[in-house]
Design goal:
With about 525 residues, the protein is of the alpha/beta class. Helix content is about 35%, strand content about 25%. The protein has three domains: about 240 residues, Phosphoenolpyruvate-binding domains (TIM Barrel), CATH 3.20.20; about 90 residues, M1 Pyruvate Kinase, Domain 3; about 150 residues, Pyruvate Kinase, Chain: A, domain 1. It binds adenosine-5'-diphosphate, phosphoenolpyruvate (PEP), potassium ion and magnesium ion (MG). It catalyses: pyruvate + ATP = phosphoenolpyruvate + ADP + H(+).
Length: about 525
């Protein structure tokens, strides 16, 4: 059993597999993003989600109005306060998503080998023969033989509510399709995916812009998930827009790659974006099944080398209705970690699933097991080689901190940072222990009032593998004199001890600036 991503050089003792894992304060280094909805919006459930390891909450504006999402977010804030677990907020756009309009919400039955017409005429009632859609350019975009997929929002693939259509004929603005399987479309929202077809709609729609500039601004969103990102220009335009929205100039843009168009422009998109979401729900139907794993591995590698966080979606769909993942899903979660994901995004599982808390907990446990056998040594060498020489000073410091921490078996790395850059660079080298990133607030002014930076930077590390933020007291001056360094370090150590990640006699690696010099120091605790 030899795989370069695994640290299993010796044949492992089978009995050791059965040894129970030690529980720790941090369920896993890998982060979990939960999509919030009907089954995950009470304060009680949200508290459970936070305690079991969700550190980013995703609000998907493909459905639901601003008021509904606000109620959920307000409950989340209550849960954050009572559990004392930080959680970042991600707004997910609608983008050029095609949807079936079923006003009556009556169930629609489609027969295998039956014909069904997709029409932009929304005055027509949805029925077994006609499905009205929200886009009038489909007839021009597809041709006979193309594949179109219609499924329940966040379809899991195992429902009988999704249908595979083959384009049979184009008639004016209508597209007549042959249904390849029988299905009953039940529910309020159906999305439509035309495989490998360019949809001539903007990546950021008017509705998206409105939601971002109202709901997004009010809630100071940490992340914008840019659905159906297809070009680097999509990210640049979104960035321009955010810049004009006050605090949102600090919002990070995560480009969601969901189709072949995004895959084709992946390198340029990665350069512009702050992070990437590999949206396997849609990619899994846009790509031939045998190619999905290849894109996953290649894209994660590129994100890792660029030092940008990568999020993978759709890992345990079957847990929407079940307490245990399938064997394939359980293995898939572990492989996501070994392939280099920073975070796992749960969709239907937390949104409308029966077991949101249990799902987060099980995914976290699988991630933690996989992290233990991740071949950090090989990964580290590969990354150093990729970066080449000369390294920037900061990158050299960051990689040295990780190397030192592993050599002395440190229990944590404590990294001082204001912009978050140093902590992100440490995470890039995938330390095997948690990194407490102590974000030192900086005073800023817009000539009207004073405020402190740091909150965005702290929350934005909640999506990066291994980083656990702590916001330092703003009364500590930002300049790094040795007296302030010592007092902030003491607070960080106390925080680590309270959390149970640091014990007496542990070694801790600290990365900070002393005067003008960046230093990595190793401290050994007494009691
Ligand atoms: N307020 C601070 N006190 C002590 N050291 C700091 C502080 N802020 C950053 N550092 C250290 O300075 C170096 C540069 O880190 P970086 O995150 O790029 O800083 P900045 O926030 O100034 O961009 C790193 O070694 C980091 O640990
Ligand atoms: C998360 C996904 O997308 P959506 O925004 O449609 O839920 C996905 O396709 O994997
Ligand atoms: K969406
Ligand atoms: Mg999707």
């Amino acid at each position: 059993m030899h795989s370069s991503h695994l640290l299993l050089e010796e044949p492992i003792r089978m009995a050791s597999i059965l040894e129970p894992s030690k529980s720790s304060f941090f369920p896993a280094l890998t982060k979990i993003v939960g999509t919030l909805g009907p089954k995950s919006r009470s304060v009680e459930t949200l508290s459970g989600c936070l305690k079991s390891g969700m550190s980013v909450a995703r609000f998907d504006f493909s459905w639901g109005d601003a008021e509904y999402h606000q109620e959920t977010l307000d409950n989340l804030k209550v849960a954050v306060k009572s559990t004392k677990k930080l959680c970042a907020v991600m707004l997910d756009t609608v983008g050029p998503e095609l949807q079936v309009i079923n006003k009556s919400e009556k169930a629609i039955t489609l027969k295998a080998d039956g014909l069904v017409t997709l029409t932009p005429n929304q005055d027509q009632e949805a029925s077994s023969e006609v499905l009205p859609i929200n886009f009038d350019g489909l007839a021009k975009a597809v041709k006979k033989g193309d594949t179109i997929f219609v499924g329940q929002y966040l379809f899991t693939g195992s429902e009988t509510t999704s249908v595979w259509l083959e384009v049979d004929e184009i008639k004016g603005d209508d597209v007549i399709c042959l249904s390849r399987n029988a299905a009953t479309l039940a529910g309020a929202l159906f999305t439509l995916h035309a495989s490998q077809v360019h949809i001539d709609l903007p990546t950021l729609t008017e509705k998206d812009k409105e939601v971002i500039s109202t709901w997004g601004v009010q809630n100071k969103i940490d992340f914008l998930s840019l659905s159906y990102c297809r070009h680097a220009e999509d990210v640049r335009q979104t960035r321009e827009m955010l810049k004009k929205l006050g605090d949102l100039s600090q919002t990070q843009i995560f480009a969601k790659i969901e189709n072949v168009e995004g895959l084709t422009h992946f390198d340029e998109i990665l350069q512009e974006a702050d992070g990437i979401i590999l949206s396997r729900g849609n990619l899994g139907i846009d790509l031939p099944p045998e190619k999905v794993f290849l894109f996953q591995k290649a894209a994660l590698y590129k994100c890792n080398m660029a030092g940008k966080p990568a999020v993978l979606t759709r890992v345990v769909d079957s847990m929407t209705d079940n307490l245990r993942p399938t064997r394939a899903e359980a293995t898939d979660v572990a492989n996501a970690v070994l392939d280099g994901s920073d975070a796992i995004l749960l969709g239907a599982e937390t949104l409308r699933g029966l077991y949101p808390v249990e799902t987060i907990s099980i995914v976290g446990k699988i991630c933690a097991e996989a992290e233990k056998v991740f071949n950090q040594d090989l990964y580290f060498k590969k990354t150093v080689k990729y970066v080449g020489e000369p390294m920037t000073h900061l990158e050299s410091i960051a990689s040295s901190a990780v190397r030192a921490a592993i050599k002395v078996k440190a229990s944590v790395i404590i990294c001082f940072t204001s912009s978050g850059r140093a902590a992100r660079l440490i995470a890039k080298y995938r330390p095997t222990m948690p990194v407490i990133s102590v974000v030192i607030p900086r005073v800023k002014t817009n000539q009207l009032k004073w405020s402190f930076s740091g909150a965005f930077e702290a929350r934005q590390s909640l999506i990066v593998r291994g980083l656990f933020p702590m916001l330092a007291d703003p009364r500590h001056p930002a300049e790094s004199t040795s007296a302030t360094n010592e007092s902030v370090l003491k607070v960080a150590l106390d925080h680590g001890k309270q959390a149970g990640v640091i014990k007496s006699h542990d070694r801790v690696v600290v990365c900070q600036k002393v005067g003008d010099a960046s230093v990595v120091k190793i401290i050994e605790l007494e009691d």
